[in-house]
Inverse folding.
């Protein structure tokens, strides 16, 4: 058996995609590999049956930095993020890896499933901000507030977000910003009835984390996406993915893949001219400004109307 230590130190959402590749490597090549990981988000690997502790300094262990070059073809060719690392590993290892599920592989223990969440009853997670490296993904917090206000009395929204990132406070929500580590957020996702977020980790976990007994197999998720990424690269089939690719000259040929709406003056690469939005309207990228609160409200209403008691 080949012994592999797979490494990746990108954002947690990227690492969720690596969990899918390792799952599919073992399903496609049973008994051929032992795998361990070194990543930026160790808690994503808790309870993972495909992980075997290995010493990367051992002579019989291969250390493989993992990438997904498939993304560079995403504007012009079919393919989803969940296939990216598997495609790379297929070529690197010389094996055929078949994608077996349209989601990452996150595993919860029975104890975690029995955990009592901080919120009683049914709730949706809302993420109304993000990281400074990709401000172009941010939507208007006032529009998030309009959505929350519309469903007041019908949906309890729990606002989450990592401390130190940009997550403006919303009213009429349960505020858990900065109060959950990654594993706690995974458990919160398990107990949630739905997720509302930009293109970010929460949407990937919405797909990857199993649903509770009594719910349908796939968790509702509404994604405010705009025009940064081609939808076929990011969207999951059961999600409502609100994009504007093709509506503007800057995303006519697929996602623009820019980083920031406006420069922040922090010396980061996102401030370079080639990484800045070319069509800013107020404080929003034009592709996000085209999405109004009613667009998001309608997508949530679709879930409520279609699923009823299964939410």
């Amino acid at each position: 058996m080949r012994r592999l230590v797979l490494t990746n130190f990108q954002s947690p959402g990227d690492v969720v995609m690596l969990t899918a590749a390792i799952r599919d490597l073992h399903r496609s090549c049973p008994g051929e590999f032992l795998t361990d990981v070194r990543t930026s988000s160790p808690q994503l690997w808790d309870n993972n049956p495909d992980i075997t502790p290995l010493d990367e300094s051992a002579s019989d262990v291969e250390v493989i930095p993992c990438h997904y070059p498939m993304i560079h073809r995403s504007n012009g060719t079919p393919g989803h993020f969940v296939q990216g690392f598997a495609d790379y590993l297929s070529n690197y290892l010389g094996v055929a890896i078949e994608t077996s599920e349209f989601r990452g592989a996150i595993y919860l223990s029975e104890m975690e499933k029995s955990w009592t969440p901080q919120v009683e009853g049914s709730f949706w997670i809302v993420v109304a901000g993000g990281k400074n490296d990709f401000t172009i993904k941010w939507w208007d917090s006032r529009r998030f507030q309009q959505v929350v206000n519309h469903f007041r009395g019908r949906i309890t929204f729990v606002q989450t977000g990592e401390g130190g990132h940009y997550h403006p406070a919303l009213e009429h929500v349960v505020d858990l910003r900065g109060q959950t580590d990654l594993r706690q957020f995974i458990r919160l996702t398990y107990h949630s009835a739905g997720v509302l977020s930009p293109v970010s980790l929460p949407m990937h976990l919405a797909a990857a984390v199993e649903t509770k007994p009594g719910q349908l197999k796939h968790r509702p998720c509404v994604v405010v996406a705009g025009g940064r990424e081609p939808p076929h690269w990011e969207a999951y089939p059961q999600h409502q993915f609100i994009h504007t690719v093709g509506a503007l000259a800057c995303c006519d040929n697929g996602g623009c893949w820019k980083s920031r709406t406006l420069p922040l003056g922090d010396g980061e690469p996102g401030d370079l001219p080639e990484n800045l939005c070319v069509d800013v309207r107020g404080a929003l990228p034009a592709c996000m400004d085209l999405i109004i609160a009613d667009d998001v409200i309608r997508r949530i209403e679709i879930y409520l109307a279609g699923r009823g008691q299964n939410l």
User: Anything to note?
Assistant: The first strand starts at residue 2 and ends at 8. The chain has a mean pLDDT of 96. Residues 2-93 form one domain. The CA atoms of residues 40 and 101 lie 23 Å apart.
